[in-house]
Structure formats: C-alpha cells, structure tokens
Design brief:
Number of strands: 27
CATH architecture of the largest domain: 7 Propeller
Distance between the termini: 23 Å
EC number: 2.3.2.27
Main location: nucleus
Largest sheet: 4 strands, antiparallel
Order of helices and strands: EEEEEEEEEEEEEEEEEEHEEEEEEEEE
Number of domains: 2
Organism: Triticum urartu
Number of helices: 1
Protein name: RING-type E3 ubiquitin transferase
InterPro entries: RFWD3 (IPR037381), WD40/YVTN_repeat-like_dom_sf (IPR015943), WD40_repeat_dom_sf (IPR036322), WD40_RFWD3 (IPR056527)
CATH superfamily of the largest domain: YVTN repeat-like/Quinoprotein amine dehydrogenase
Shape: globular
Helix content: under 10%
Strand content: over 45%
Length: about 325
C-alpha cells in the first residue's frame, strides 16, 4: 500500500477475483470510496511487495517478478520497468532526487537505478547477510548527507545512498535470538527509529545459539494470535552511532514481514503504530518511552499493511489494510 497524501490517493496491490487471478493495483480516492479503479499490471509482475509514492504524480513498486516498476498516476499505467536479478521485497527514493531509486533484493543486496538510464543499475551494493531486504527508507544523517536505512533479519543497517562505501553499517549488535521483521522511521530524519523483532523459530536441539528457555517462555501466545514479539526504540547518539532504547511487546506474526510506522502528531511528539495480531487492529505507543497510547478499531482479519504519509500542507494520513478492509485516519499536527 502507498498513500499519496497531497493528492489523497491510495494505491493498494492485490489479486483480481477468480482462480489464478492476475496481480493488480487498486487506485482509491480518499475523497470518495466509490472512486476506485482496478489497474492491470504487466505480465509476470507477480506479487507487489512494496510501494513508494514519488513527487510529481508517480509511484515506485517492487515485486517478486524481478521488477522495479515506475507507475504514472496520470495515465494509470506502468511507464518504466527495471529488470532485476532476483525478486525485490522493498523500494525507496529520495524526495530531493526522485530519478534515483533503490530496490532491496531477496539475497540481501540493494540496487541503485537512475530512471533516466535504467538498462542497468548504477550500483549493486552487497549486504551484511544473504537475508532478504524487507524494508528501505531514504533518509539523511545529521550532516544532511543522503543515506539509506534498510532492515533484514539481522537488523537495521545504514548505507551510503551513492554506493561509495564497501558495506553497510549494522546499527545494533546482531542478536542471534531474534529476527528483525520491520523498521519504522520518519523520513527524512534518521534520529528516531523503531525496529520490530520476533524470536527465531528454527533451532536444532542443543544449538548453542538457541534462545534461552526463559526467553522462549516469554514469547508464547495463544494459538492463532501469533507470538509475543518486541518493538525497540533506536536513537542516534552521534553522526554514525546508534543506541537501543525503550522496548515494548505485542503479538506479532510468526511469518509475515509486517509494516510499522512512526506518526508525527504535533509539538514534536511522535507515536509508533503497529498492527497487533491478537487485536487485529492498530495499536499505538508514545515515543520515545513506548508507553501505551491507544488502539484503533480492529478488523476481522490481521493487519497486512500499515503506512503513514505526511502532507506538505500539514498533517497526514495513517492507513491500515487487511484482507477485507481498508481504514484511513487523518492525523492533525
């Protein structure tokens, strides 16, 4: 899902009805829920894993069909496709330079493309592991240099956006007892982040790297409600250094790479939002303390996607999507 706050349009990916239905985009007007258009995607696009709204009336999306695609909101069509060596799970672009776009791949690499010369990537940057890159955010550091924040199972990393460094920097020490499945920030700032984790599930008997029994006893939940995971604040402590802060717990998916969001809410205050598995709705916590704030109206099915988009004229929108419902909340600042 992607939210174009300026034009009050939502893009949501899905499958057309019927057996073997093709993957489509649904373009929905926030001004009228009846103004929805179903848009066929090019053959072999497959599942769309991430959507990034760009300035100027276009959107970028990454798909398992090994495509990084540029979609025109004006013509309601895909106007450019970058061929990728592997399925893409995430994508991003900087507001200040929407020609330069990024794709996070299944093998841990991040590819950099220029949409004006897209036949081959400008850079192919290797990650610290072979785990898929499920999250990408385009940000700046405190010296205003462009950076990329990514997340894979080993945790969040910071990359040089221009491909000038040999490898990314892992923001926190790798913890082999947990898997990072989501990373929230408030671009372009990278000063305040929230990483979400669940315990590893596949340990061989007697593995020295397996979590302790005490840790496992804290992570079991009732059947069908996911498992107990944790959300951890990460704060910048220097130009290239970060530290782990407050932690809270909620019920998280055992398998999905779920999305989360940091929501600005006025007076320089922020909320962290996540779709809790047992609540089947969005819960919010105050930042940076992660004190409980509120729960939004639950759905009948688990939350599959969650996005916040700020508007240039102030305020923004928080959207959450499940199999049978799309909710959008206006956030005033």
């Amino acid at each position: 899902m992607g939210i174009d706050a300026s034009n009050q349009i939502i893009l949501a990916s899905g499958k057309a009805p019927g057996v073997g239905g093709e993957h489509v985009l649904r373009k929905i007007s926030m001004l009228s829920s009846h103004e929805a258009r179903t848009i066929q995607l090019p053959p072999d696009t497959k599942v769309v894993k991430d959507i990034c709204i760009l300035p100027g009336g276009s959107a970028l999306f990454a798909s398992l069909g090994r495509r990084l695609s540029l979609f025109s909101m004006t013509t309601n069509s895909v106007v450019l496709q970058c061929n990728l060596p592997l399925p893409a799970w995430s994508c991003s672009a900087h507001d200040s330079d929407s020609h330069r776009v990024y794709a996070g791949l299944q093998d841990g690499r991040v590819l950099v493309f220029d949409t004006r010369q897209h036949s081959r990537p400008l850079h192919s940057m290797a990650g610290l592991s072979k785990h898929l890159v499920h999250t990408l955010h385009s940000v700046t550091d405190n010296s205003a240099s462009r950076k990329l924040l990514s997340a894979s199972a080993i945790g969040p990393c910071m990359w040089d956006a221009d491909g000038n460094q040999s490898s990314p920097k892992l923001l926190l020490e790798d913890d082999n007892q947990r898997v990072c499945f989501s990373l929230a920030c408030a671009p372009p700032s990278s000063d305040l982040l929230v990483a979400s984790y669940r315990p590893k599930a596949d340990y061989s008997s007697g593995d020295a790297g397996a979590p302790s029994q005490a840790y496992l006893s804290q992570t079991s939940t009732q059947s069908g409600a996911g498992k107990l995971g944790q959300h951890t604040v990460i704060r910048r402590t220097g130009n290239a250094s970060f530290a782990e802060g407050s932690t809270c717990h909620s019920n998280v998916s055992e398998v999905r790479m779920c999305k989360s969001a940091i929501v600005p809410c006025g007076n320089d205050e922020h909320l962290f939002a996540y779709g809790d598995e047992s609540h089947r709705g969005v819960l919010t916590w105050r930042l940076p303390s992660l004190g409980v704030h509120s729960g939004l109206i639950p759905h009948r099915q688990p939350i599959l996607d969650l996005r916040y988009a700020g508007s240039r004229v102030g305020g923004g929108y928080l959207g959450c999507l499940s199999d049978d419902k799309l909710q959008v909340y206006r956030v005033d600042r």
